[in-house]
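Intended use. Records like the one below are meant for learning the mapping from a protein sequence to its folded structure. Do not use them to infer anything beyond what is encoded.
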Amino acid sequence: MSVEEVHPTLPIDLFRRAFRRYANGVTVLTYSGAAGTHGMTATSVCSLAAQPPQLMVCVNRAARTRDLIVEAGRFAVNILNESQRDLSELCSTAGGDKALDASVTDPDGAFPFIRTALASLGCHVIQVHEGVTHSMIVAEVDEVRLGRQSPPLVYFEGTYNTVRTLPGGGQVAPMYEQLFDDMIRSYS
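Structure written out for the chain above:
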């Protein structure tokens, strides 16, 4: 290990590099308001409890998305498949217009679900905890929709991947597909 890696005051760059090695599924948070339906790409999403079903998303406090989700009181978490990289990139543009039209989302339901997502979870906000730079939004899941089963879009080492392109390639895919299947079953 280098001196930097064991230094008692953690350099920010070292912290960030460590988390770049944590492979995450890619989600888009969708929310509706007076200006229509919008989305924000998020990788800081996790389940908190199965009974009652709860999850947590982390959103930068400076992002207008944070205020819009909290004001709306409801949003959807959409788990993307490997063919939805363009949608994720659209929704990850800082300060850009992230409006989603009816061809992408289902406008008729209680939640703005992305039509072709692997899975979508409709949520209502129950708590907001403020961190230094991000808000941790705790939500209860009211509705789950499962899409067509296919490999997920994954973010790893600062790039988009699929389970086939992660180190180990096809050897890794069955393990990730089984983990994904188990996660979806836990919400069914």
